[in-house]
Amino acid sequence: MLHRLLLSSSQFREHFSFRVCFCPPSHLAVFLFLSAASPVRLVNSGNRCSGRVEIFHAGQWGTVCDDHWDLDNANVVCRQLDCGTAQLALSSAAFGPGRGPIWLDEVYCYGNEPSISDCRHSEFGVHDCVHHEDASVVCAPGSHMRLANGGNSSCSGRVEIFHFGQWGTVCDDLWDLLDAEVVCRQLGCGRVLSAPTQARFGQGSGPIWYDDVTCTGSETKLSECQHQGIGSHDCGHSEDAGVVCEGNVVFITDSSVFLSFPVSCFASETLGTVCDDHWDLDNADVVCRQLDCGPAQSALSHAAFGPGSGPIWLDDVYCSGNEPSISDCKHLGFGVHNCGHHEDASVICEGVEGEVRLANGGNSSCSGRVEIFHFGQWGTVCDDLWDLLDAEVVCRQLGCGRVLSAPTQARFGQGSGPIWYDNVMCTGSETKLSECRHQGIGSHDCGHMEDAGVVCEAASPGEVRLANGGNSSCSGRVEIFHFGQWGTVCDDSWGLLDAEVVCRQLGCGRVLSAPTQARFGQGSGPIWYDNVMCTGNETKLSECRHQGSGSHDCGHNEDAGVVCEVRLVNSGKRCSGRVEIFHAGQWGTVCDDHWELNNADVVCRQLDCGRAQSALSNAAFGPGSGPIWLDDVYCSGNEPSISDCKHLGFGVHNCGHHEDASVITNIPTFSTATLPNPRPPLNTTTPPGNYTGVEGEVRLANGGNSSCSGRVEIFHFGQWGTVCDDSWGLLDAEVVCRQLGCGRVLSAPTQARFGQGSGPIWYDNVMCTGSETKLSECRHQGIGSHDCGHNEDAGVVCEAASPVRLVNSGNRCSGRVEIFHAGQWGTVCDDHWDLDNANVVCRQLDCGRAQSALSNAAFGAGRGPIWLDNVSCFGNDTNIPTVSTSTLPNPRPPLNITTPPGNYTGVEGEVRLANGGNSSCSGRVEIFHFGQWGTVCDDSWDLLDAEVVCRQLGCGRVLSAPTWARFGQGSGPIWYDDVMCTGSETKLSECRHQGIGSHDCGHMEDAGVVCEESSQHQHGHALDKEVDLSGTMMSCAQAVKQSCLNVGTKGLDLMTVATWRMLGLSAKVYTDRYCTVTHQSVFLATLSSGCLPFPVSCFTSETCQLWKPLLRQSGDLPCWTVGDSV
Questions:
Q1: Nearest to 400 by CA among 373, 376, 368, 378
Q2: 390-422 pLDDT, tens per residue?
Q3: pTM (predicted TM-score)
Q4: How confident is the model over 437-493, as pLDDT tens digits?
Q5: Which CATH number is correct for 910-1012, 3.10.250.10, 3.30.70.1290, 1.20.1600.10, 3.40.50.720?
Q6: Which among 382, 401, 622, 777 is placed 20 to 30 Å from 546, CA to CA?
Q7: In what residue span(s) does the SRCR domain sit (predicted)?
């Protein structure tokens, strides 16, 4: 029977891969071989590794019923999709009900099946389910830790860890809550509840990798804890250790530009929501911090992201904001509530990868300098090639309507920090700026004078403004933005409760009146709301009941108005600025006599802005105009409004506007980007070298040739200022020395020992505990609040022990690398700068592991000498200055060891060859970046490029460089395009290319490689044992030995020998020049002196003597000389 195949091109690509084969010319025939692509997918989550399970059968997609759905089933799906291990096996249509057929029911998997359809199940299409029982999965890509046999929960079970290509267990000797706490943290499963022993979750199989584990509880991974050594133990599987964790917040990411989700809790192994009763920013902060998403931006109610389903677990939640998890906050009890899902709570957190914002645009959130969030930090976009198409994408991402213009040349002021994008080329159809082509994150040749900007047409939907109110933005005709257009509100039923919500939304304090009958003039355009009925508790006017957008029976002669009481102006943020109050029909200021934090607290609470951070004087946000309404204000801090505090009387004062009071509050976090431009008229300190600074940065001035002693100065509000010496002591000075990377504190001089500064005095009565990382974290009176003169400027003398620091980021663990040499600080050139080098710096500063190794002055250009160039670290060196930049070999490629794709995540810049059959030395080229494997486009791909891949993998000479997806089409990102290697590079990442993620290709152009295969890949004896050492930290000595191996000499390194000993093989040093390998024994060759630029030979007695101390420190591994048994 011949059937017609009717598939669109997109359907064809989705369901089939194809290969065209040309027969010999005499046959003149072309055959099209179709093979089914992956018949499973996860949908409705925005993430390919989580969602509702769907399989392709009989020409259409269908779902899987959740009867007997468990982690074993979910693990098969995750592995089939190359998504690591399963984290959750969800039921009850957790990602929404599907449609169409239900293909599978009663699925029983062992967990080892190659696909879900290979598991035991009812016949295709035979089921007793409906779509609200659709099964779902959340995978954890690349996890090297799992909890097995814990039922439906991935947060309890037998502890298993992945080493050398194999899962194994952990012995329960010394196993306790501290060890279990690290496991829970590594898996993102919240707090630990118990640490079961004696194989509580059943006996495992395979190797027992760890014994006598001793964690401090602060480690991020179990592999960082002390133990006997991988594979060293005296246990049986009857002693397998287990863990029970609390479970973590589970969330679904909305398609919004922000990280936005219905908050869900994991309790009793069932997903449920949280009711919005008493839901506020303190609660939201706990959720955002628990998810490592930065501080909360908004705490939304009324199911802002749609109603959930299933149980409502929490109600009446009260958090202080410091709790470790949402379940630690005060609440009624799990499952106790009086809510419906239309009251589900939601959250918007501040920092989300790829989020954009517009800075310094005045009162508009839809115009300003373009900034994008990457790697935990906001950065700008260079204006090279910046045009309306690029700006249009930004406007769309922000929901700001059509683009009006795409300003360049830092029209909205120069930003600070990294420049993330350059040469942006959007088509205009993208939904997010991060989807557009660009040079690569952090790759640019720009300065901040080229920061790109955007002006969009519209405000955000639901935004309100008060029009025609004269000089006041807190009184006027009420206007609201909907459907791309501003419109008015009809005054039918308009009253003080409605006006109160408008004042709250605008941050204008209490309502004074709710004028009707177009008191502020008639508006134009649509009338959006009529018969508004607010309860007074809403946070936005759009949350109030009304007839419906655009439904009314009014004319503009009935436009509603509002007059509010208090506001903060001249900062660009509603929660900071000069204090102004509305009285007798006009706005006026408050004098700063006796102005203190209690007064500021009342203003901040009145504006619903949290607690006061600073009570500023001397017109910090510029002098106002008009009347000065209040003077000598005394608040206890509990008054409902500033006018309720004790004062001289309205209009009674002895002040000028240069004494206007100001306030900065803690919520939202204050940013220097919001300060007025030009700056307020303060007595400024001229920064040395015209260098400004980062908010909270410190420096030591007037200390002679040393940058580690001098007068303490700190940067706030665009200006350097000093610190008063009241209460100043060694604990305070210790924090300054730590922040500057200047070693231990020696003394804390007072009385302006290093000369009197000028400009503001920012801190007084500083009280540090000594454990803070920055001076701004210490307690003090408030920024700008003091009773000192510059004759009391505080100083510091540090030891200057640490010769390295990271600057210009506002964070001591990220920034431009600088080292101290010959009495001054200088920078390091980025030639050959990679993660190994960065890891040494991070460890030297006690900052953990390196996340990125950035080049091209990502944190701004330094000044002074450039001390180091061509730095080559192995990654295990103790510090940067002890590394010789002239004698060490170039960074070597990794061991000649391959790991099957899917079982191993990778390290930045690692390569692998996929889909090459039984050979690990041929296949589709894939490279690891930003936590994900991706392919390489075949544009310009040739033998020189392929040669570098073969070298990096230790696979011998290159034979061919296939193109056009010869080894099948990959998936995920395409990381490189237009690769141009010289052929001498040691790693593909060292070759020139367009930039990471910048390409114009599809996966049908994926590049491939066929290498010759080295002898180590061809032996049929012990050398065939492939050992995954990727998770093992090697000492400096071990790295040197490994580099001997990787230059092509036939010898073995320390790690390999140690591993073979663990596996029961024997080794013996046989000769200095060669080795012979048999199945029974392994003979270890020592290497010639040509291996390394050292005056001794590897593995000779001289080398053993040289390296013996280091070898002892790195695990008591012995040295071998000729004739020694290993």
A1: 368
A2: 998 998 888 676 787 788 999 899 999 899 999
A3: 0.26
A4: 888 788 889 999 999 999 886 566 788 888 887 645 677 899 998 766 778 999 999
A5: 3.10.250.10
A6: 401
A7: 40-140, 145-246, 245-350, 356-457, 464-565, 566-666, 698-799, 804-880, 911-1012
